[in-house]
Design a protein that fits this description.
mainly alpha, two-stranded antiparallel sheet, 6 helices, 9% strand, globular
């Protein structure tokens, strides 16, 4: 259950913004332009999930409902496909309780229709068609 007190919520948001600034997550913006008033919730959620650690991500669940966090994740992070593939698999499993993260991610239209992962032993291709996975190991 998210916190309802507006002052506490704003305090948590301010602390997340301050931590994101310390991590240089807003490197392309003037630091003084990044304030609570001009960053929307979806972007604060996505930036926190992308740049900060588990204790900070946990704070998101104290101030936002699960549905809002999941929507921001799908809209702003899942769409990055290969760049955030491992991170998105972790989020799917850890926060959104997906038993099979690869299959789970394949259900989103924003996720590409084919996945390629280079492993030490070879290449595994994950094809996403109607939630069915096939793998082809090549050496």
């Amino acid at each position: 259950m998210p916190i309802q007190d507006r002052h506490i919520i704003d305090s948590i948001k301010q602390s997340l913004i301050a931590q994101l600034k310390r991590e240089h997550a807003f490197w392309s913006y003037n630091e003084h332009d990044i304030t609570l008033e001009n960053i929307d919730d979806a972007h604060l959620i996505a930036m926190t999930m992308r740049h900060l650690d588990l204790p900070e991500i946990k704070k998101l669940f104290k101030i936002y409902p699960l549905r809002k966090i999941k929507d921001a994740w799908i809209r702003l992070l899942v769409t990055e496909n290969d760049y955030l593939y491992t991170l998105n698999r972790f989020f799917a499993w850890y926060y959104f309780k997906a038993k099979k993260p690869d299959s789970y991610l394949c259900h989103f239209p924003s996720f590409s229709s084919a996945r390629s992962i280079t492993l030490l032993l070879g290449k595994v291709e994950w094809l996403c068609f109607s939630g069915i996975q096939a793998n082809d190991r090549r050496t």
